[in-house]
Structure formats: C-alpha cells, structure tokens
Amino acid sequence: MTGRLLALALAAALSAPAAEAQTAQSLFAAKSTPTDHRATPIGGNSRGCIAGAVQLPESGPTWQAMRLSRNHHWGHPRTIDFIERLSREATRYGWAGLYVGDIGQARGGPVAGHASHQSGLDVDIWVLPATRLDLTRAQRESLSSISVRAANQREVNERWTPAHAAIIEAAARDPDVERIFITAPAKLQMCADAGRGDREWLRKVRPWWGHDDHFHVRLNCPRGASGCVQQDPVPPGDGCADAVWWVTEALEPPDPNAPAPPKRVPLTLADLPEQCAAVLNWR
Ligand SMILES: [Zn+2]
Fold first, then answer.
1. Which architecture, in CATH terms, is 41-255+263-281?
2. What is the 274 CA–ligand 1 centroid distance (Å)?
3. What's the predicted TM-score (pTM) here?
4. 81: buried, middle or exposed (CB in 10 Å: 19+, 13-18, 0-12)?
5. Ligand 1 center to residue 171 CA distance, Å?
C-alpha cells in the first residue's frame, strides 16, 4: 500500500468509530425543526424520539415558555393541550398562569440536562408562581425559579403554598397524566394536607431527586400510538408511606445499601428504537 492510500485508509478507520461515538444527544440537538408526520411518540420517555412534534407557542393567555434559546418546547399535541389546560387552571389559585420549562427537542431524543423528555410526553413546570406574562426573551433567560425545599431537605420551605398543592393536584387528576415528579418534602406535605377523603390522585405524585424548583409531568401514551412505550404503572395506594424513605434513609449516606441517583450514560443512536434514526435523518 502506498503511503497516500495508507493515510486514506487510516483516516477512514479513525472517522468511522468517531461518528459512532457521537452521542444521540448531539445528533438530535442539531435538528431544530420537527418532521412533517402525524404526531407519533416512538419508544419510551428515556429512550425515544417523536415524529411530527408541535411547538408550544412561546406566550399564551396563561403561560410563558422559559429559556427559549434552548429550543426545547416541542412535544406531542396532547402535551401542548395539557399545558394550556393546566395553565388556565392555575389562574383559579391566584397565579397569572404557568412558567413552562423544558418539554423536548423538535425530534425528541436525548436532551441536555434530562434523562427523559425524549418522546414529547414530558414537561417541566416551574414552581415559581407566574405573576406576569410579559417577560421578554432576555428575562426568560435570566430569571430563575425558586426552590420549595427547606435547607434540611426534609420539609418544604415558606415558598410552598396551597396554590402549589392545588395546581399539582389538578395535574394529577388530569386523565392524560401518567405521573408527576416532585421533591419528596412536597409530596409529604400534600399527603399530610390531603385529609381522609379522596386520596387516589396522590398516587401519581412521585418523589424524586431534584425537582425542588419545578415539577415534572409525564403524560400517558396517546391511544393508538403503538410505538409508544409506557413506563411500568405506578404501584397502587397513595404512596405516602413509601415517600418517607426520601427524607430519612435517602438522606443518610454512607449507608452502602442506599440506592444512588441513577447514573446517566450517554446514549448513542443504536440505543434508541430503530425508527428514531429515520426521524433524525428525515430531510
Ligand atoms: Zn423534567
């Protein structure tokens, strides 16, 4: 082999694994527009993508989308409908509406800062009460949410209000909602305040790491979406007894048996359903 051919062969050998090693996140982040299909979630929330996503309008009568520069406000139309619905509901409790964090990318897929949000069925909602809906683009970059968790991580702080509980309860009662992630102290406070009546909705409110400055709503797979993979169902019951673990054992390292927060391994395109390659490479 001549030196020139050898150099070419070496270059090819080096570039093939380099392309393969590219994370699915960087590939999907490079696509700023959705595909032209009927909205179709593909795969699961943490290994999936979406064809035909639609964008949440950046402002509406009862919401504003935050951090517009990320271009993370694409999702399934049912997700967009839900956000509009819940934001109207929020006005019943004294908020001007909702400040909406990340939904997903234009074609879904792994997204910076999240393990899920891949199939257009997840949305983060800030716990900062919306007091005005005329924030400029710049203000939506610089404004931050608040935390509703006390420094001891065991209780909510003074920023938690009955309005937070009412809005999260409304989300949990929405038939399109599969589950909601929120910091454990907030779940426990809702458990304490719920009374003896109907506690069934509490089942969907799930404690999870983080989630003290936003709550995360996950929607059910839409009917007929055969490629959509739904998470194992939430166990029966209100989940209140189990939630105590989060403010006791989970806060007490170095118990070697305490589960650590799940590690995020960067996914490659091969980790996603096959159809996601077609979604990614569509035009
Ligand atoms: Zn989230």
1. 2-Layer Sandwich (3.30)
2. 24
3. 0.90
4. middle
5. 15
